[in-house]
Write a structure and sequence with these properties.
By secondary structure, the chain is mainly beta. The chain has a single domain, classed as Beta-grasp domain (Ubiquitin-like (UB roll), Roll), CATH 3.10.20. Helix content is about 10%, strand content about 30%. It contains one helix and five strands, in the order ββαβββ. Strands 2-1-5-3-4 form a five-stranded mixed β-sheet, with no helix packed on it. The protein is globular, with a radius of gyration of 12 Å. It starts with a strand and ends in a 5-residue tail after the last strand.
């Protein structure tokens, strides 16, 4: 299936979860927020939420500055 991840079209297996997308991106273990189709997804739901064809996923990571 095709989904948009941070504005880029990407291919994943049908039934891929949010957690699997995060792993595929190599995102850090903490400081990450995810929205699917404009709705924030709580971290506890990442392994449960299966994405569908055409979903839009935004992955944000916190960075420290100074």
């Amino acid at each position: 299936m095709r989904i948009r991840v941070n504005g880029e079209s990407r291919s994943f297996d049908d039934g891929t979860t949010v957690a699997e997308v995060i792993t595929a991106l190599g995102a850090p273990k903490s400081g990450v927020a995810v929205a699917v189709d404009g709705e924030v997804v709580p971290r506890a739901d990442w392994p449960l939420l299966r994405l569908t064809q055409g979903a839009t996923v935004e992955v944000l990571t916190a960075v420290q500055g100074g």
